[in-house]
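ok so I'm stuck.
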Amino acid sequence: MRLNRDISAIKNRKTDADESVIASVQAIINDVRKNGDAALRRYAEKFDGFKGANLTVTDAERTKVLERLHCNAANLTEKPSDGTFDWVASNGAGGDDYFRILHRAAERIRDFHKNQLEKSWSIYKEDGVMMGQIVRPLERVAIYVPGGTAVLTSTLLMCAVPAQLAGVKEIVIFTPVKENDTVSDEIIQAATGCGVTEIYKIGGVHAIAAAAYGTETIPKVDKIVGPGSVFVATAKRLVYGVVDIDMVAGPSDVLVIADETANPKYVAADLLSQAEHDTLASSILVTTSEKLITEVEAEIDRQMKYLKRGEIIKESLADFGAAVLVGSIEEAFDISNDLAPEHLEILTKDPLSHLPKIKNAGSVFLGEHTPEPLGDYMSGTNHVLPTGGTAKFYSPLGVYDFVKYSSYSYYPPTALAELKDDVANFALSEGLDAHANSVKVRFE
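replied:
not stuck anymore, here's the structure
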């Protein structure tokens, strides 16, 4: 498969919703805001076929799933505070190894993100002035877990663990039902392992509206995190300001910078792994080796024959895949910094030496044994990342996304007296005499 030789199509990739999508999303949000649970049930039945009595996963439902999968529910603790899986899976067929994998992933996510914890601080000055910053966790956060072609339990962990490390008291999950009005087993397992027990059987735009505004049975949240379709992303954009959101995520992308030492088999496999996400996903190779491009294209053809999502991959690569030949590694990094990729792989002879060249990237993967899927599941770095070039000004999801900051100050009379004239004159220069008066009256 011959990849595109320029990146103009990728740079102009349209990811914003059109007017018709915005209008339909706004209508659903307005309906849920006005009619609450009744609207939720209507949309849940219309879009997901949900006709159940409970909008939440009950304790009985959760226990039934865990017992069927041979998880010993008696060993569960209610709410681990540090994002670890504080429970034990009993021996037996049906899930023991999956539990082990979830536990290992959560531990590695925790080990990375605990370094992001921040503390409140204070300054004390000789004139009696005190000032500082208070760091507090958000109270209630919603994690949106898509229920489409892939059940993203990994994203659930990526969102829940940092939130727990930050100290968020209430973490809830919104996810659409699969069949028989049930939430997927994998989501229940991962959520329970993280200590998240409040799961709503609602997906799509109506879930975002319920989280943002609340209904009769669903309390509103302070922040919504997690990926979704263009409709979900649009809904998050429209409710921003009523609640906070992590980011407005678009289709995923990867950029691989490689030299003549790169293994074409590895490069092809990494481009394919990104392309299988979505037909709008973007996979780009920037290299100093024309031979590598030819070999990578041959490897893509060979490997794609064995992949289940071949049709999605083929369309993604045809529309948004590219191989760009450059004259130097420096030129490759200029292109990368301009595109600001979500994922950046460095497959060169000495990858670590290039780290200072990177200005804009969501997550960076150095060397041929650090493929991007490692970051998706097990490296510990977060995979909720800025897409569509927004890595120029957004950061990966982290503990800092689940806290808020308040500044404070205390001035004794003598300290204010020393500044009163400057404060008053500054205020008067802006035409705000009431501001000036607020200081003056204290010394009349």
